[in-house]
Amino acid sequence: MIVDRNPLDPYTDLRALGAAYITQDDVASVCRVTPETLKNWRHKGTGPPSTRGKMPLYRASDVADWLDAQIR
């Protein structure tokens, strides 16, 4: 399932979305970075896990796990 709407609010509970796939703009909004920063992270392998292709998608629960790991 792909969530189709305006970018997520930075305070969205990603765990509530579970296995839904969210867009680069959503992740950028939640992480408070630009989509270009996410692109750089993907190329370096340092960002949250994503699908490959022209339009990378991110599983909401994976992004939540990645954010938790950054805080620790």
**Helix/strand order, N-terminal first:** HEHHEH
CATH class: Mainly Alpha
Proportion of residues in extended strands: 5-15%
- Give the name of the CATH superfamily: Winged helix-like DNA-binding domain superfamily/Winged helix DNA-binding domain
Number of helices: 4
Our measurement of the CA-to-CA distance between the termini, rounded to an integer number of angstroms, reads 30 Å
CATH architecture: Orthogonal Bundle
Major beta-sheet overview: 2 strands, antiparallel
How many whole angstroms does the radius of gyration measure?
11 Å
Average pLDDT, to the nearest integer?
Answer: 87
- Into how many domains do the coordinates divide? 1
The shape is: globular
Secondary-structure content class: mainly alpha
Total number of beta strands: 2
* CATH topology category name: Arc Repressor Mutant, subunit A
Helix content: 40-55%
Low-confidence regions: none
- Biggest sheet strand order reads 1-2
Protein described:
With 72 residues, the protein is mainly alpha-helical. It has one domain: Winged helix-like DNA-binding domain superfamily/Winged helix DNA-binding domain (Arc Repressor Mutant, subunit A, Orthogonal Bundle), CATH 1.10.10. Helices cover 47% and strands 8% of the residues. It contains four helices and two strands; from the N terminus they run αβααβα. The chain has helices spanning 14-17, 24-31, 35-44, 60-71; strands at residues 21-23, 57-59. A two-stranded antiparallel sheet has the order 1-2. The radius of gyration is 11 Å and the shape is globular. The termini are far apart. The mean pLDDT is 87.
